[in-house]
Design goal:
Strand order of the largest sheet: 4-3-2-1-5
Number of helices: 11
Helix content: 25-40%
Distance between the termini: 32 Å
Number of domains: 2
Structural class: alpha+beta
Strand content: 5-15%
Length: 309
């Protein structure tokens, strides 16, 4: 099957139609009896392509010839474990679901519990050091300990996603982890803090994968490595600003794996602490519902990481 989404522009937001398109036939799969309805089935005639046939029988192609159909990477019902994406029915929203979340509900609860602890530690520190940009260079033992815990948790998330998608090995590095950036659009997530509305938004993964030095590209993660291994000379790098970035990265990883609601919870301390702006996904990358098969029709397939290590 070659699955395509036809994007229909409306006054409010686009709507989509799911199609199975071959060289000579196009069948809309999100309706019943498509071969018996108008505009839901096309057959190419001799000497023409299926695209020629659709152009001939509809006004769907734009005047400049732009195709309204977008080929999807995944077929209907396919999804990647621990990678949340919008579905075709909510493609302008946040990555609202991972169809396999119920299989990982214990992991999600533990991850959210650990993030809650980190948020409480950060909030406690902020009761002593006012979280304003001028104080983000402040450092100390509590901040160092929080930075180490938060970055260790981020590493656990990174590893979990790779392993869930078939990556094998005893030891991963940021050369492996940086591959998650494109798969999950991590660099596009932004976080603000409702409890501290004067703070600018942070994008912990911005610039990741841009220079070939994935550890150094994440300044908060590079600082964690420095203060973990050499506190005596690198202590000043355990800053409050890096702690904010690291804890925010944990929240992003939960949302990017399981969606904002399932990952962070509907009503929780972490959902109150963070306001997360999620990416807009291209039509080719959204999840397509398993039409005709119900919720049992979802099937996990490994994400095709181009792993070099």
């Amino acid at each position: 099957m070659s699955c395509y989404l036809r994007v229909v522009q409306t006054e409010t937001e686009p709507s989509t139609e799911a199609w199975d398109i071959t060289d000579d036939e196009a069948v809309r799969i999100d309706v019943s009896n498509p071969k018996g309805g108008p505009g839901t089935y096309f057959k190419a005639e001799s000497g023409e392509t299926i695209w020629d046939a659709i152009r001939r029988m509809t006004p769907w192609f734009e005047p400049d010839g732009k195709c309204p159909f977008h080929k999807t990477r995944l077929n209907p019902g396919e999804y990647n474990r621990r990678i949340a994406r919008p579905t075709e029915q909510h493609s302008n929203g946040a990555p609202d679901r991972n169809p396999g979340v119920q299989d990982e509900i214990d992991f999600v609860a533990n991850m959210r519990g650990q993030l809650t602890v980190l948020v409480r530690q950060l909030s406690r520190i902020c009761q002593t050091v006012q979280p304003v940009p001028a104080n983000f260079s402040s450092f100390g033992h509590d901040v160092r300990n929080l930075l180490i815990l938060a970055c260790t948790e981020v590493e656990s998330h990174w590893r979990g996603v790779l392993v869930a998608n078939g990556k094998q090995g005893d030891r991963f590095t940021t050369l492996d982890y940086v591959l998650l950036k494109d798969a999950m659009h991590l660099d596009e997530y932004a976080v603000t803090f409702p409890n501290y509305p004067w703070l600018p938004s942070v994008k912990p993964f911005a610039g990741w994968g841009s220079t070939g030095a994935p550890t150094q590209e994440l300044k908060w993660y590079d600082a964690y490595n420095a203060v973990k291994h050499n506190r005596e000379t690198e202590f000043a790098r355990a800053t409050l600003g890096h702690a904010f970035d690291a804890v925010s990265a944990c929240a992003i990883m939960l949302a990017a794996q399981f969606g904002l609601s399932d990952g962070l919870g509907e009503r929780s301390e972490v959902r109150d602490f963070f306001a997360i702006s999620a990416p807009r996904w291209p039509w080719s990358e959204v999840y397509i519902s398993p039409y005709g098969r119900g919720s049992e029709g979802w099937n996990a397939v490994p994400y095709p990481f181009r792993i070099k290590s």
